[in-house]
Write a structure and sequence with these properties.
Blueprint: E1 6-8, H1 87-96, E2 97-99, H2 129-152, H3 162-170, H4 172-205, H5 220-245, H6 247-277, E3 283-287, E4 290-291, E5 303-306, E6 309-312, H7 314-319, H8 332-336, E7 339-343, H9 397-404, H10 413-416, H11 424-453, H12 456-459, H13 472-476, H14 481-513, H15 532-548, H16 551-579, H17 593-610, H18 612-632, H19 641-657, E8 671-674, H20 687-696, E9 702-709, H21 712-732, E10 738-744, H22 747-757, E11 767-770, H23 783-797, E12 801-806, E13 822-827, H24 834-842, E14 852-859, H25 865-878, E15 884-889, H26 897-932, E16 935-936, H27 945-949, E17 959-960, H28 964-975, H29 977-985, H30 991-1011, E18 1016-1020, H31 1031-1041, E19 1048-1052
Parallel strand pairs: 8-9, 8-11, 9-10, 11-12, 13-14, 13-18, 14-15, 18-19
Antiparallel strand pairs: 1-2, 3-4, 3-7, 5-6, 12-19, 16-17
Length: 1063
Amino acid sequence: MPHFTVVPVEDSATSNYDSLEGINWVDYRDTGQGGHPGHLDTVSSDGHGNHKEDSPFLSSADADRKTDFYDRNLALFEEELDIRPKVSSLLSRLVNYTNITQGAREHEEAENTEMSLRKVPKVRTHQNYLSLLLRFKQALTMLTAISMSAIATNGVVPAGGAYFMISRSLGAEFGGAVGICFYLGTTFAAAMYILGAIEIFLKYLVPQAAIFHASDHHGGDSAILNNMRVYGTICLSLMAVVVFVGVKYVNKLASLFLACVIISIVSIYAGAIKSVFQPPDFSICMLGNRTLVRDQFDVCSKTVLEGNVTVPSQLWRNFCSSGNMSSPQCDDYFNQNNVTEIQGIPGLASGIIRDNMWGDYLEKGQILEKAGLPSVDFHGAVESVGLYVSADIATSFTLLVGIFFPSATGIMAGSNRSGDLKDAQKSIPIGTILAITTTTLVYFSSVVLFGACIEGAVLRDKFGDAVSKNLVVGTLSWPSPWVIVIGSFFSTVGAGLQSLTGAPRLLQAIAKDNIIPFLRVFGHGKANGEPTWALLLTGLIAELGILIASLDMVAPILSMFFLMCYLFVNLACAVQTLLRTPNWRPRFKYYHWALSFLGMSMCLALMFISSWYYAIVAMCIAGMIYKYIEYQGAEKEWGDGIRGLSLSAARYSLLRLEHGPPHTKNWRPQVLVLLKLDEDLHVKYPRLLTFVSQLKAGKGLTIVGSVIQGQFLDSYGETQASEQAVKNMMEIERVKGFCQVVVASKVREGIAHLIQSCGLGGMKHNTVVMGWPYGWRQSEDPRAWKTFIHTVRCTTAAHLALMVPKNVSFYPSNHERFTDGTIDVWWIVHDGGMLMLLPFLLKQHKVWRKCKMRIFTVAQMDDNSIQMKKDLATFLYQLRIEAEVEVVEMHDSDISAYTYERTLMMEQRSQMLRQMRLSSAEREREAQLVKDRHSLIRMGSLYSDEEEEVVEPVADKNQMTWTKEKYEAERRNRNNAPENFRELMSLKPDQSNVRRMHTAVKLNEVIVNKSHDARLVLLNMPGPPRNTDGDENYMEFLEVLTEGLERVLLVRGGGREVITIYS
């Protein structure tokens, strides 16, 4: 039924319309079926589409009015036609009534006030980009160190460092993904440090050791890269051997490397102080305001004096094609500008810091220029470009962030070797924070000293072309440039060794946790625990970074991996702090969740600022690892914060759902599946789960419930085994949901408990799925079909929808595919639109996707079938459901002899079964009488539910005296047996049962005729009778209604609309 209000249209009067927004009730009153206006049947609602009948069945007072809607062909549904109207009545009112468009009026207010325009002056802001980089980097590293200190002091941190902290805080999936990224970052950092050491070695220590040489000016870069690849591979191999021999040798060399670094830093400070009094002689040559490559000439002058003759210099011959000064053919820029020589290191007292205060980013190929020097602007010849110092890459703030950030990646060095520390909880916070503080002071002071002592053109000269490839920092230092060269070389070698030491241990910790199965082999090592196989893989990956050979390309890659790790360290601290888990008790007290979130935000921003495409690649790698670990099902319970976060989110969502039931647009079946288990605790009908998985497709709530008969104290172990069996079957059938097994003394009581108590808060089921009681006709035990009907009544009373798949063993498995066929819907009465919604949901699954949908409805004698078909087609179009429509005419025919005879047989069979059960009970009593002269009897009626629910008649032994009067009464009952048989043969069927049987037979004839070859038939399920004495007849009616159909789904709505025509 669409989600709208229907309003009657008077002949000449104007109707008053109510707003449709939030209205869920529908008035099904039939004013055109002969009823009196004062006796209209209504259904109230609570405002959310939930009908609030006093009883789910008609009261006795309503029986007098049943002739108002009595129809011989719909006698099976007559008791509920007031709340489940005929389709013809519904469609006729869709035409005779007008629907109001949904939504409240939107009021638009025009703003006519003119805003005064304020002129904002454009100010060009220049910043010292190196200082800004340092501030940003140091703030980020300090925030991350605070978060890491809090996590590290919240318990023992074994080997694994950052990976261990993240995985135990955020779970195996996040820990594995970030751990692998951090491992790759550490490995590429080793490659970067080795490349840095080789660059120092080839440029400053032993330049003649180069194997490859440039054949021309354009081949210089490739020759340098090839040399770095060869020597980098050799250096990596030597370092790997040192690490393989033992980490103790790395620790011994670390002291030497640290001493070299300290000496180098002190020499820089000493040289800067010395430059105040005696700046070093370090000149650069300028043509106009352009910086010249110094190794292309010897004298910074256009002419030189040889004897008393002025002759062209080497610089002149570089710019001029003719050596004759009288008729020179020189570069235009060379002719118009003078050659000057300025100091590359003017000293601390020169005031050069004023010129270096502002940023000056260069494009690729742009010539380095010094502002302030006189220059006549000419393009000059193309051949002269190689004589100037130019930028080899385009520079920007984001690029420099990515290149410079690896200098801040050492904060994890201590945590990477947490397994080797005596007291990691104490050493990691103190060592990391002191190291960051020290490096921050060194970095900031170095930046200030460089800007105050060195010329800007020299600072931007990447390869030192203007100063004959000399190391500028080495020239500034005191007492010798070799102190800086040697210190830098050993510093990069030491950093590379530390990375090669930490990365294999990180990989080994990940492999030992066994969250990534194919890495399991890297968890093994030597007898002393050294990660041999992990070291081998680390060396191979580092070799890939060395083959890239360009520091500018390697640095952004590892920056992304390190930033990813820092981001999740901050996230882990923030999540644990906000959740306030009882185990979160770090000894480090100087942390706050706001600082962690700030650090996390800075990491994410820095990733995209430095290189957005590298950031996306790193996130994709981490995402794939996360999904792989999730797919493999890493069943690790580490008490992580994500699980706590999930619990908090679930609690918040459940509280939100408590505000009211879902809107009609959001309604979907939240299913409670009632399963039956056999004696071996195996699921008896697994295809029920198959059907539910096809219907749900992983969406919404699914609860699978079962009942074990007995006492809870005696059946707890059986309950656990049953739950595990059901969960295994749910996993096989790919049903995502929850399992609940209850123990009850009676099965029907257990089912009632499940219907009442399953779910939590707003996440409760609205639909029940249960199997059909097969073999109920052949069984003398009435408990199966009585339990079935009791469940139908419970779902009706609870306003829950009900689905009963009949012949469920013939339903398709998840591996089958229907390439053709139809899903037929027989819409007899309207009960909320369930019959429309269910085929649509089924067709979303690959099994049913190619099936077409057909909708049949029944027209009576007084219905216009042609108009009904048009109205139904219009209704389906508004519902956006594609289906074929057919209206089947059922004439009000007379009741056939077959119907009468079948009803008679049904009632005779019921009476016979009662007598058989009576005889069985008598035989049991006589046997007990012979045994001990006492009868075991039950309190209550012979046909009470209590007796029928007893599995063994000796369950409760109530000893009662067998008197003579009782014995005589039993003899009289036995003597009445022949009379009972004669009464059975002369039995006349009840007219109400005849009418119902007539409905079942006629509908079955029509359904079988139209839908005998359908893949699935959906049919309105009639409600059980008010009088419980006719329950067995009700089962017979359902059997007759569905005879001859392979797959049938009986559906009962839950008393609310579940589908709407509105968006």
